[in-house]
Amino acid sequence: MSVGILEHKSDRFINDVISQLSDIQIEFISTTGESVPMESSYRVIVDRLSFRYPFLRELMKGLSLGGTYVINNPFTSSLTNKFIEIQLGSRLGLPFPRTMVSQPLLEQVTDEIGLPCIIKPFDGYAWEDVYVVNSIDELRERYQSLYSSRILMAQQMIKYTDYFRVFCINKRDILIIKWIPKPLAMGHYLHSDTDLLGDAKNTINTMTIQLNTSLDLDMNVVEWCVDGEGKWWIIDAFNEVPEVIPEALPHDYYTWIVNKFAECISEKLSSDIRNRVPFHN
Question: Is 160-239 assigned to CATH 1.10.10.10?
Answer without folding.
Answer: no
